[in-house]
Amino acid sequence: MSYEMILTETQGRAAIIRLNRPQALNALCDELMAELHQALTGFDADPAIAGIIITGSEKAFAAGADIKQMQARSYPGVYFEDFIANWESVTRIRKPVIAAVAGFALGGGCELAMMCDMIIAAENAKFGQPEINLGIIPGAGGTQRLTRAIGKAKAMDLILTARFMDAAEAERSGLVARVVAPDQLLAEALKVVEKIGSLSAPSVAIAKEAVNVAFETTLTEGVRFERRVFYSLFATEDQKEGMSAFAEKRKPAFTNR
Ligand code: HXC
């Protein structure tokens, strides 16, 4: 598949999607988001792929939704086109999706990273929701996901003042899982996917689903959900294999059954 605004490749069991609009700091226009949706769903359906990495350039993961494209939009236009709906496809991918962020992750760029399952940041990463400078607010989940990730105090600070947060602060605040040197960013994300690829795919998919349920429900319901899907894994051959391998002091050979 050839794309105009993203580059795709696979390395081992990892799919890499690189946002590639350097002249606009990877601003997320409709065309780019449509390509991203197509690439994500394609890799999600490919059994050879264990995880998907979304990354950008050293200067920018993405500097936001495309302001020049949004500039002329009208209220009925945005309402009826519902142009952000397409973005949610990221959250419907069943395989782990990792955002490998270097440089700017602003506005919709920060929101895209937060839709992923995990953010790995380069030391030069800068996160922010500066939409308030434009007379708007975050529109792809920023007020919700950022607040859940880093709490009200810092979310209010970032969203109301448009200030950027560096990688160290993002890690301290719980937005980011790991911070690495810029030249190690992709290697670190690939390491995560390699590890995930060695595991039982049903347990990986169910673990992801269970963590995501934590954002949607009460503790009691969430624990009930977890217990149900935990028990369901005892119906898999991989549970027998994983536990037998431990008892026999050998590496498990999972078959995803
Ligand atoms: C369109 C953008 C853009 C954006 C940068 N560019 N961000 N174009 N939409 N979000 C373009 C610039 O216009 C410029 O094009 C080129 O990229 C390089 O940007 P510069 O500003 O010259 O670079 P620099 O001085 O290094 O500053 C980097 C920056 C700044 C701090 C990231 O570009 C910036 O503030 N960008 C906007 C950030 C932002 O407000 N994001 C939120 C957008 S709203 P030319 O042609 O002049 O060279 C949003 C809403 C999401 O995301 C809601 C859900 C959809």
Automatic annotation (TrEMBL):
CDD domains associated with the record: crotonase-like
GO molecular function ontology, one term from the record: enoyl-CoA hydratase activity
InterPro entries assigned to the protein according to its UniProt record, in alphabetical order: ClpP/crotonase-like_dom_sf, Enoyl-CoA_hyd/isom_CS, Enoyl-CoA_hydra/iso, Enoyl-CoA_hydra_C
Keywords, in A-Z order: Lyase
Pfam families, A to Z: ECH_1 (PF00378)
Domain of life: Bacteria
PROSITE patterns hit by this protein: ENOYL_COA_HYDRATASE
UniProt keyword Lyase, yes or no: yes
Enzyme Commission (EC) number: 4.2.1.17
Family, as annotated: Belongs to the enoyl-CoA hydratase/isomerase family.
Designated name of the protein: Enoyl-CoA hydratase
The organism of origin for this protein: Roseococcus pinisoli
